Structures are given as structure tokens and as C-alpha cells.
Amino acid sequence: MVANHGLLKGMNPVTTLVSMAIITLFVLGGVFFTEQSAALFTAVSGWILAYLKWYYIGIVAIFLFFCIWLAFSRYGNLRLGDDDSRPEYSNFSWFAMLFSAGMGIGLVFWSIAEPIYHFQSNPFITEGLTAEAAQVAMRLTFFHWGLHPWAIYVIVGLSLSYFSYRKKLPLTIRSALYPLIGDKMYGPVGHAVDVLAVFGTVFGVATSLGLGVTQMNTGLNTMFGMEVSLSNQMILIAVISVIATLSVVSGVGKGVKILSEVNMWLTIGILVFLLCFGPTRYLLGSVLQSTGDYLGNVLSLSTWTDANEGSQWQSWWTAFYWGWWMAWAPFVGMFIARISKGRTIREFIVGVLLVPTMLGFIWLTLFGGTAIYLELFHQITNEAGELVAAVGQAGIVDAVKADVTSALYVTLDKLDAGFIGTIAAFMATLLIATYFITSSDSGTLVVTTILSMGDENPPVTHRVLWGLGEGAVAAILLMVGGLKALQTASITAALPFSFVMIIMVWGLMRSLRQENLAPAVYTSAKAVAS
């Protein structure tokens, strides 16, 4: 299944060459046919949103309900590995890598911008910039960053780790097909599934890299005066991609693990800063209130399709997010699988669903809640020298309207923390860079693992090649349309892989039902893989 010599040594020749061809055509098309490429992405994503938005909403809801049921089913005690295996990483390292790979740049980018957007207007309020609007804004932000994205990751990660570590099949997406088609998974159908996974991974990671580098450019402009320009963003992508490639060459146990833990400590540091210098009492109350409000509305939000109104809001928010998460699913799912060997199915689902979700809620409240508080309770001095309410005039709303990447730095500046605020802004920019690196190196490791038929230490040459390639795709997406192109790419890449995820659920359930009936059924597959 893998080449024994030549440039493709250690890699599956078919999936590697096909994947390379697709990505190369995209890069060349973006360079030489920039306007046409942008128009194509827009047309495809527009069709998906017009006709299949309901599908995205429904399938993600089903994934979440399936995960909750499976966690409390009789299969929950099964280990992802042999019955006597135990986890390879400590809980702290595991959670750090989960959070860094699963959210990372996107959470930094949207943690203030999204609540402020919804605070101004959303389909559930009649008037923006009010206390009600603030509550609904946090509810919707929690919805987009809560249980649903992590349920998507659980589906892929659990399927991969189960078939690889318990059933001894290759650590590739195609292994989920074995209960359905047997050894035919090593043929054309399996090749197609792995290529789709690579396609989704590259575009999903590139979307995050594009978001991250635009915000990093803004941060460097704020602190050091670096011009915000496409050329500087290209330079940043090149530099960070090289660093990420060096990290991925070192492997999961070294570079990726260390950077993930650095991310976690930086995250804790910034959260402590906001808690100390922000509206502490408001934030503590908001964490509890917003979490309860989210849990009380999560069922109705999960199945809401905006059928009666038909506005574009849900298309460019919920549908974009669900597409983004599904495009990321092969990347994050594979990475989670690699670091979760030895855990039980119940431990895996509960850990992946709840811990990063709760940390994300705290993050969103401290960042987004601080920004909303500053806007909601802003006061100015009138001509009579009296303090009067000036809701929406703190400057953060205007910053989001003018340049979404500046929202983070404007909020930190409005806290008026002096030198410590400057340090916090620097830490935030550094955090974006480290998340950039961990997203890129984790994505590279996943792509090369898939293409090498599950080799957990794929050839270094290909790790370098794909690491630089992901940076090139991010650069092209910025060239052909910036943020809008990044969004349309994610929505488009998610559609084919969503069908693969449905097959993964089917295959996983079929195999679990056979768990105590035919434990030797995978002998032939193990022989083929070896």
C-alpha cells in the first residue's frame, strides 16, 4: 500500500499524487486566475447555502445527540486500545493539545468580534445594544463554539482511535469503512475517502491560518507600526509556516506537545489579566448566567433553520461555522485520535465534549463579555459636566465595523491597564502565533499520516512539503478574497466530508455491535495492513 523507494517512499502513491495534484491546481488557479477562482468559490458556497443549509444544521445536531447517547451506552467502558492499555499523556497535556488543535486561532479571532456583531443585531432581538441583546449575543456565540463543534470532532476522533488502536487497522480515515466493505477499503473507495480528508484538512487549516495572520498583522501594527498589507501577511505566513514545519518534524511528543502547553499557559495568563483588570463581578456572573442560558436554549438552536425569515444571518454564521468545523474534522479528529490511545469511549467523549467547551465558554465570556460590558455601560461627560450613558460608544463596535481584526486590541486598550495592558497585547499576539504554529504543524502531521497509511512517524520530506503547502494555500485564499474567500472555502470543503462522517458513524456502530460477537473478524484486515 506504500511505496518502498523513490520520492514517495513511505507514502501511498495514489492518494499522495492525487492530493498533490488537487492542491497544486488550486494554488496555480489562485495565482493565475484570481478573479475567476474567487467567483467559483462564491458560486459554489452560495449554492450550498441556498439549498443545503438545512442539511448542515440537521447533520451536526444528529452528531451531537449520537455522541451523548454513545457516552452513556453500554459501549462506554470499551478502551481505545487493548483492554489493559492506559493513556499516553497526562490529562493536562491532553486537554492542552485538544484545545490548541480544536479551536486555537479562530477563538482568538472571533472571541470579541462575534459577540459584538450579535450585540448590534441578530434574528432574535428587535433592538440592538441593549441588555437583552447582550444576553442573546453570548448565547449565540456559545452555540457556535460549544458542544456542536466538539461533537463533530468526537465522531472522527473516536472512529479513528477505535479502529486503529482497538481493531489494529491503519490510522487513516478509510479504516472506518472496514465494517461496511471489508478489504475493499484498500481500493479506489478508500483512496477517495482519504483524498477528501486531505482536501478538507488543508482548506480547513488554511482558513484558520488566514484568519490568524490578518489579526497578527493588526497586532504588530498596533505595537510596532508594521503596515497592515497583503504583502506583510504573506511574509508572516511564510515565516510562521517555516517554524511550524520545524515543529512538526520534531513530532507530537516534542514540538507539538510543548507548543500546546505554551498555548495553555499563555491562555491562562491572558484570562487572569482580563479577570483582574476587567469588570470582574460582571464577568463571573456572566459565565454562570450565559452557560445556563445556553443550556436552556441549545435544543431549539440546534434545530433552528431560519425557514420562516430566510435571512442571510444564519448562512454566514451558523452554516459557516458548521462547515468550518466539518472541514477541520479530519485534521482535529486524527490529531485527537493520536493523543487518546488507552482512554475509554466514555472518557473520550466526556473529555472532548465538556472540558474544551467549558474552557471556551470562560474564554468567550472574559473576552466577549468584557467588550460588551465596555459598550453597554460606557459613559461620557455631557456639557453640564454630568456622566450620562453612551451605550455603543466605547469604540469597540466601531472597531469591529471598520476592521474585525482590531477588536481584540481595541478592547485591551480600553481597559486602560497601562504597561500591563501592553504586555497583555503582546501576549495575545504571541498566542496567535503559537496557535498558528500548532494548527499548522498538527494539520501537516495529520495529512502526512493519512497519506502514509497511518504511519505515526511519516517521512520527514513529506512533512516539510505539506507544511509549506498549507501556508501556500492560506496565502492564496487571502489573495483571492480575504475573509470571504476563507469562509466560502470552508463551507465548500465541508460538504463532501460530511458524507464520509455519516459513513463513519454507521461503520462505528456496526463494529461496536460486533464487539462481543466476533472479536477475530478483523484478522484479515490486520494482515493486509501489515
Automatic annotation (TrEMBL):
A molecular function annotated in GO for this UniProt entry is: transmembrane transporter activity
Q: Name one Pfam family in it.
A: BCCT
Gene Ontology cellular component annotations, sorted alphabetically? plasma membrane
Which residue ranges traverse the bilayer? Answer: 12-34, 54-72, 92-113, 147-165, 186-213, 233-252, 264-284, 319-337, 349-374, 417-437, 464-483, 489-509
Entry keyword annotation includes Transmembrane helix: yes
Keyword terms of this UniProt record: Cell membrane, Membrane, Transmembrane, Transmembrane helix, Transport
The domain of life is: Bacteria
Where the protein is mainly located, per its record? membrane
Places the protein is found: Cell membrane
Q: Does the keyword Methyltransferase apply?
A: no
How this chain sits in the membrane, per its record, is:
Multi-pass membrane protein
Q: Which family does it belong to?
A: Belongs to the BCCT transporter (TC 2.A.15) family.
User: What protein name does the entry list?
Assistant: Choline/carnitine/betaine transporter
Organism from which the protein derives: Colwellia psychrerythraea
